[in-house]
């Protein structure tokens, strides 16, 4: 990143020297000098020394300093989005966190009669009695960047069924990311009920046979998928604005969730504010659903 910034500074300096020296000296007898200072933002000081010469009596120098401040978000550019630890913790704000220590976080279920969950020793067992069910939280994450992290395992040790995370979901639109115990992952996008491949099935040595930590990071219209802190894929983020973030379960594969964490990436300007009197948790009201045009 430092080399990139230095190259940028050198190019800007060369352009200003070339343009200003040729034009200003030719037309106005200016003598420009370029100064680039190593600050957190890109600071270009252009010092014009305007020389006036009056006959043979005297020389008078007038100095005018103009500072052009280019407000480049260098903090965000310093992030390494393709590295698990590439964003400092100070640049993250917890939107939602549940370690299933006993406090009821009001999880939603697509079918309360057929979706069961129980907590024991800081873990949550989620199972379905019939068909596919979604166990989720309502979180407004349709603006700016976010980072979702779930530590999860299948309850059945020898299952071949996938573990599936749901993102930006609504009734008929969602992005799903799944891992299988044989060591593969894939992602799909569902729009208007029709499912299409987002990432075809790929093998990964990062997948474990017991607990897996799945981290999904979205920033600047790009989405990054990590399995146990290793980047496995990144793609342009599909145009989804749903508010359901959670877990898809089936009768064949009940899952155990160790924790569920959603972070808001602070460098994203204009993002939704997740702060509330409940300590950063966000639950949608009817007014908010209408305002965000969500199902």
Would you give an account of this structure?
The chain has two domains: 2-74, no CATH class; 81-291, Exo-inulinase, domain 1 (Jelly Rolls). It has three helices and 18 strands. The strands form three sheets. Strands 4, 6, 7, 9, 14, 15, 16 and 18 form an eight-stranded antiparallel β-sheet that branches. A seven-stranded antiparallel β-sheet has the order 5-8-17-10-11-12-13, with no helix packed on it. The model is unreliable at 24-28, 30-75 and 268-295 (pLDDT under 50). With 295 residues, the protein is mainly beta.
Detail the topology: elements first, then pairings.
Layout: H1 2-28, E1 30-38, E2 42-54, E3 58-70, H2 74-78, E4 92-98, E5 108-109, E6 115-120, E7 123-128, E8 133-138, E9 146-154, E10 163-169, E11 174-180, E12 184-191, E13 194-203, E14 212-219, E15 222-227, E16 230-236, E17 244-249, E18 255-265, H3 286-291
Antiparallel strand pairs: 1-2, 2-3, 4-18, 5-8, 6-7, 7-18, 8-17, 9-14, 9-18, 10-11, 10-17, 11-12, 12-13, 14-15, 15-16
